[in-house]
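Budget justification aside, the reviewers requested a transparent look at the raw inputs and outputs of the sequence design task funded under Objective 1. We therefore reproduce one unedited record. The lines immediately below are the structure tokens for a 352-residue chain.
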């Protein structure tokens, strides 16, 4: 009789790439996957084709693990971190801008039917927040409430309140990226105007850089960069700023000011002990953090009352804001944690 091994599967669904990872369900051997597959997300082929890719990767990883280790493999569950909006009550996708034709697709039920395993669908930002809470910055802080803001192509956010992911009524709670900061600002894909996403995301940074380059005080270096077809990227703007270009630095200062304004509203509302900033733009922390903190002090009286006396050491009953610890791995890890935490929560509720 073969010994049993309980495993958890995480899926990080992105508009460009799809990642599937196999993890120990107790994570006693660390947080790195036992095996993982990365492949292109075949968005243009439709959701059924992508679900088939997910199931195929899972099947190949489980078969390979069984052959190598000779364990009887038991799947605890499958967690999916997906772009939103989602209807978590029904397990369906909302209107995903980068997934045309996928609206209303029952992702949770379809994958469960194909694999025969229980599936938990979650917003990708919430999945990343769970990973940071359990194994990243949240673990270091030892808190049960936090927000994670991801500054990527857009601005994602995940909320954990009193040890639970906050979903709202049907799973659309915590859309911090679509807080309206400027009603006269640029149009947003959500249908509103002047959302935080238009200022603090990678796309928002490039928009700010174009405006700066076209202005009277735009530097020649930034103008030249903004005219490039493929070289005009957030990383290139950050590199220019790090080299001391005043125009590029202004872009990050403005980004930080808008981000501080958005976080001020979040702190005034929830009085959170910890906010974690992740995503690709967060790698430019030193460029935007000073104006972000200045904006927080200006627009949040709650933050002013609970501002830490120093940036590097956690202090009790003070709002601490810090970069994420886990980087791009957080989404896949958080997805794999979902089935395990769901079972643990059910056991706790049954005991009480």
């Amino acid at each position: 009789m073969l010994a049993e091994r309980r495993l958890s599967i995480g899926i990080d669904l992105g508009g460009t790439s799809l990642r599937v990872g196999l993890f120990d369900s107790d994570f006693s051997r660390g947080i790195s996957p036992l095996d993982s597959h990365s492949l292109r997300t075949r968005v243009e082929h439709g959701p059924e084709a992508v679900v088939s890719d997910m199931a195929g990767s899972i099947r190949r990883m489980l078969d390979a693990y069984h052959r190598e280790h000779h364990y009887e493999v038991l799947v605890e569950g499958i967690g999916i971190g997906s772009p939103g909006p989602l209807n978590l009550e029904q397990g369906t996708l909302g209107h995903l801008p980068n997934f045309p034709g996928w609206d209303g697709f029952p992702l949770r039920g379809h994958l469960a039917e194909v694999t025969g395993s229980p599936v938990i669908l979650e917003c990708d930002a919430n999945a990343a927040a769970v990973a940071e809470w359990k194994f990243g910055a949240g673990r270091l802080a030892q808190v049960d409430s936090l927000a994670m803001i991801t500054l990527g192509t857009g601005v994602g956010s995940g909320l954990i309140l009193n040890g639970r992911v906050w979903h709202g009524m049907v799973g659309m709670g915590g859309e911090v990226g679509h807080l309206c900061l400027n009603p006269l600002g640029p149009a947003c894909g959500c249908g509103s105007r002047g959302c935080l996403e238009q200022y603090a995301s990678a796309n928002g940074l490039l928009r700010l850089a174009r405006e700066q380059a076209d202005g009277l005080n735009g530097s020649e270096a930034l103008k030249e960069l903004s005219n490039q077809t493929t070289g005009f990227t957030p990383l290139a703007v950050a590199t220019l700023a790090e080299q001391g270009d005043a125009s590029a630095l202004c872009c990050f200062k403005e980004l930080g000011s808008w981000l501080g304004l958005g976080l001020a509203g979040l702190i005034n509302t929830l009085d959170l002990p910890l906010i974690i900033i992740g995503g690709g733009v967060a790698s430019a922390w030193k460029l935007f953090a000073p104006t972000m903190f200045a904006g927080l002090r200006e627009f949040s009286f709650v933050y002013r009352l609970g501002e830490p006396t120093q940036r590097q050491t956690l202090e009790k009953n003070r709002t601490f804001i810090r970069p994420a610890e886990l980087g791009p791995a957080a989404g896949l890890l958080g997805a794999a944690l979902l089935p395990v935490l769901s079972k643990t929560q059910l056991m706790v509720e049954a005991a009480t």
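The first helix runs from residue 47 to 69. The chain has two domains: 4-124+329-351, 137-325. Computational costs for records of this kind are itemized in the attached budget.
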